[in-house]
Amino acid sequence: MHKRLCGSYRLKNGCFIFNDHLLSLVTSGPILPFKLSDIGEGIMEVTVKEWYVKEGDKVSQFDSICEVQSDKASVTITSRYDGVIKKLYYEVDATALVGTPLVDIETEPGPEVVHEEDVVETPAMSNDEHTHQEIKGHKTQATPAVRRLAMENNIKLSEVVGTGRDGRILKEDILNFLAKQTGAILPPTPFHEIQPPPPAASAPSSASMPKMKPTPSVQLPVVSRPVFTGKDSTEHLKGFHKAMVKTMTAALKIPHFGYKDEVDLTRLVQLRKELKGLSEARGVKLSYMPFFIKAASLGLLHFPILNASVDEAVQNITYKASHNIGLAMDTSQGLLVPNVKNVQLLSVFEIAVELNRMQTLGATGQLGTADLTGGTFTLSNIGSIGGTYAKPVILPPEVAIGALGKIQVLPRFNSRDEVVKAHVMNVSWSADHRIIDGATMARFSNLWRDYLENPASMVLDLK
């Protein structure tokens, strides 16, 4: 049987006072559905790629809830409330519709809790995204990517002055902080590091032991063997694959004009060899792509119609002022085409810095909308996988694209009719034949080739 409590009771400020002792009432706030709002770009559905919380977890404002993927980019969803996760509405890889709940959050009691219809969504890795990190009693606003960059370079975010909205720390703030400390701009450290060989154990003298092949210092990658199930399988197209269907269907409406040529990169190979060490000393990997991209931008200055777009009715041509040159990347998520913004204003080294950044993000599936939209011209480095010639498909609303083959060492005749060793690359161009004629494409290709075969000539036209 239950014993009755005898004494005096009174209510004060939502709590019971029993014989002058405070008895707190355990209360809970309202449970609010946390809805997915309009992400923009006409996106109506996304795929849930990863949950950062589970039912029963306590969250604060700006904590990461989940990562979703649209047909444009990956997006990190952050919490607007302080509270407890009561329900997850979707499994991983499920499709979530705009306007439907993602989670239910039991908010903390108080008059300040206001029901919000929309969710704060932030494109992954973009300059406008924000999350909060507690540092020594005050909140420092920084994205997960910025925090990772700071951690990899042993930088305390509390020592960095944020130039973003509301004092948010941007990637550029970290790079500027590094530049002041080291005199160089350092990119994010690569995720996969080469493991050093194990220390050699003491052994008998070499004279008494047979010669052994040296053990390679770099471990060979483990190749997963395909599993044959003997059964058909069907899966729903989503994410970037769905975007590819939409883009390529639109591209089929464009009459493509093809043009192919070969480029002697012997001088460029020597120039890159001389600059490679200097670039790596600044913390940046220098490939051939920055030269290819810069040469394309210099050519677009002479042939602006290749850096244009045409409306659906093919009645108006818009000449783009910025050279936002895209680079087709083969990633685990499929084909992605991020672009380097305003190449006409960048040096070869600055282009290399951007490519390093985008390749790191692409490898981890964290390219944001800002990187994947706004392109005006595209290069596809298919030669990094293999092959010589290709038939690249234009990415609407762009009007031209180039595919670069692998660099081969081949015999060629020099000016004295002598057979010499040359580094040769094939290039394949496609142009929208509705507004670009063959002569224009050929002249642009010749100019682009001349810049690369005589890289010193690019210095004369650099701004």
TrEMBL record:
Chief localisation class: mitochondrion
Domain Peripheral subunit-binding (PSBD): 141-178
Biased segments, Pro residues type: 192-201
Cellular compartment(s): Mitochondrion matrix
Catalytic reaction equation(s): N(6)-[(R)-dihydrolipoyl]-L-lysyl-[protein] + 2-methylpropanoyl-CoA = N(6)-[(R)-S(8)-2-methylpropanoyldihydrolipoyl]-L-lysyl-[protein] + CoA
Cofactor(s) listed: (R)-lipoate
CDD domains listed in its UniProt record: lipoyl_domain
Gene3D superfamilies: 2.40.50.100, Chloramphenicol acetyltransferase-like domain (3.30.559.10), E3-binding domain (4.10.320.10)
Entry superkingdom: Eukaryota
Extent of Low complexity compositional bias: 202-216
GO cellular component, one term: mitochondrial matrix
EC class of the enzyme, as a word: transferase
An annotated Gene Ontology molecular function: dihydrolipoamide branched chain acyltransferase activity
Spans annotated as Disordered: 192-216
Keyword field: Acetylation, Acyltransferase, Lipoyl, Mitochondrion, Phosphoprotein, Transferase, Transit peptide
The enzyme's E.C. designation: 2.3.1.-
Annotated Lipoyl-binding domain residues: 31-106
Entry function: The branched-chain alpha-keto dehydrogenase complex catalyzes the overall conversion of alpha-keto acids to acyl-CoA and CO(2). It contains multiple copies of three enzymatic components: branched-chain alpha-keto acid decarboxylase (E1), lipoamide acyltransferase (E2) and lipoamide dehydrogenase (E3). Within this complex, the catalytic function of this enzyme is to accept, and to transfer to coenzyme A, acyl groups that are generated by the branched-chain alpha-keto acid decarboxylase component.
Family classification: Belongs to the 2-oxoacid dehydrogenase family.
Entry protein name: Dihydrolipoamide acetyltransferase component of pyruvate dehydrogenase complex
Name of the gene encoding the protein in the UniProt record: LOC100135807
